[in-house]
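My main concern about presentation is that the manuscript never shows what a single data entry looks like. An entry of this sort, consisting of the sequence and the corresponding backbone structure tokens, reads as follows:
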Amino acid sequence: MEEKAQDTSSHLSKEAAQELMRSLLHKEGTWVDWGRACQQLQKSGYDTQTIFEATGLQTIQQNLVIIAAQVYDSLVKAAVSEDTLAYYQGPKSDILYELRILTQEQRASAAELAKEKKLEFDATKEVAKAIQEFSRFAQTPAGFTNDPGDAVAYQYWKRAKQKKDLQDRARLIAQGLKFARSQGAREAIEKLLSDFTVAPTQSAPLIPIYRLEAEEELARIVPFAGALPLKLQDLEKISPLQVEEPFRVTHLANGGAVIPLPGWQIILKAEEPIAILCSSDRLPKPLPGKIEQVLVVVERAEQNWDINSYFLVEQQEQLTFQWFEEEPNIPILGQVLLVVRPKKILDENNILEPWQMDD
């Protein structure tokens, strides 16, 4: 039974949308059907809150099943076995969600591996990351193959080599042997049982982080009308600005947007800086504390690899931030200059109102 991805580009009629929401409310079909239905509704202009109120599916659940269903559809296109498709139609959406970072070919082999090893979502996340990192090597490491099992085994082999503690080393060796598929990979890992040489570790650099602290750092963006002499028509061309907190991203009605940043030296020296909003837990090294929206400033003029920097790259047609221990074989789109946390403001209204003193 091959399932085809539904068309999510056409606009739904009100009746069709209501029928989808009714089906979601009663949890009809599999989670794959739920993901496709949620995507159809969102594509037709229904926001996640409206869908939640009608179906009980929270925003995070909607996004998970939508992306997992897209991964499932890519498995269908890759012609994986019917047993594998049936396996993932069970409560396995969280597992397929973790495979979203892989290519279609990698997803298929990773899905087969996760099924074979009966992996849960946390272990699958590590497997997906290992496969992705392994694919970036310009040359396959000696003894290992491009099989997903070997890719995971290589990460355990690498980590085992860096361990001095024999118990930790033995545990990682056992994990590596569990995933190794090729004879060469098994031999490379088994060699660590008699070779106790410890390889030096290379730690990822600290992410440069700033937090907005003073009110004067919260710059205000003003529309630019041009230079005198001006005419009334020039003023009429100016569109109103729409500002979004906490970083005051400013949108122009006629397209484009700007964002205010303090005049830090690292910003002033940048040749082609751009700003990207993301959640703090989506950084290569998640920030401690509560998850919050942060601003990542990227220097597009710097596209040369440096082990002490983080970079903006494209993965699966999406932009993401990565650190590379070795020079990658994928294009670097820019270097991360810094990450800005939003200013902590206890009472934002105090900024807008004049001082008042008791008589």
Summary: Strands lie at 209-211, 241-244, 249-252, 257-258, 273-279, 293-299, 311-315, 318-322, 334-341. The chain is about 40% helix and 15% strand. Residues 205 and 308 are 6 Å apart (CA to CA). Residues 1-9, 355-359 have pLDDT under 50 and may be disordered.
